[in-house]
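> run fold 3-oxoacyl-ACP synthase
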Amino acid sequence: ASRRAIEAAGRQPGEIDLIVVATTTPDQVFPSTACLLQSRLDIHGCAAFDVQAVCTGFVYAMGVADNSIKAGSARCALVVGAETFSRLLNWKDRTTCVLFGDGAGAVVLEASDEPGILSTHLHADGDYASLLQVPHGVSQGYDAMQENAAFVEMRGNEVFKMAVNTLGRIVDETLEKNNLRKSDIDWLIPHQANIRIINATARKLRMSLDHVVVTVQDHGNTSAASVPLAFDAAVREGRIKRGETLLMEAFGGGFTWGSVLAKY
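> ok
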C-alpha cells in the first residue's frame, strides 16, 4: 500500500520525511510498525511512529501529519492505516467475527500552496471504553494474551447509537468550522463499520448514497484501514474527481471519533 501511494504521488521513498502508521494490531510490541515499515521501504532518518485510535486511527494519523506539515516539521508525509483484525476475533462469537477484516491503505501528504486538507477534527471520550474493547494486554489481562484468547468485545446496540449521534455532531462541527453547507460536500468517505451507520450519516448530510463511498460489502470493517481503502477504490474507479470536496469521518473504540475535510 505504501509503495503504491508513493508511486502514485510521483515521489521516491527517500523524499518521505515523516511516517505515521495508524494500527491497533502492530507487528510487535516494539519497535513501532512505522519503524519496521520505514526499514522495508529503505527510508532512513525521518520521524516514524504509530498512532492507535482503532477505527478512527487513519483520521487521527492524517490530522497529525497535516499539523506537522503546517508547522514546517515535515514536507512529505506517508500516512498509513493497516490492520490484521482477524487476529483479535473469537470465531465462535458471531456478533463480532462476521464484521471485521484485514487490510492496509496509504496516502502521501505534501506541503502545497493549493488547498488539500482544509481541516481536521479529532475527539475522544475514554468513559465509553468498555463498550468496544480488547480488554487484554501486557499489563491487564495478560493471561488471556498468553492463552491466545485476547478478543474483541463489543456491545453492538450501544455502539451503534453512540456512533450515529457522534458522527452527526462531527459532520456539523466540520461544516460549521469551514462555513460550508451540506450541499458543498461532493463525497462522503465514511469509516466502513456497517451499512446502517453509513446510511444514518448520509441522511444527516442529506446526501444521496450515490455520493457516499461504500466498500464494507467487499472487505468488512478493517478498522484504521477502512477509510484509505474506500478512498482508493473511489479514486481508481474514477468516481472522485480532482477539485471535489471530500469529507472523511470515523468512529472507533475509546471512544474516538474525527473527520478530515479535504479538496482532492
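Residues 156-177 form the longest helix (22 residues).
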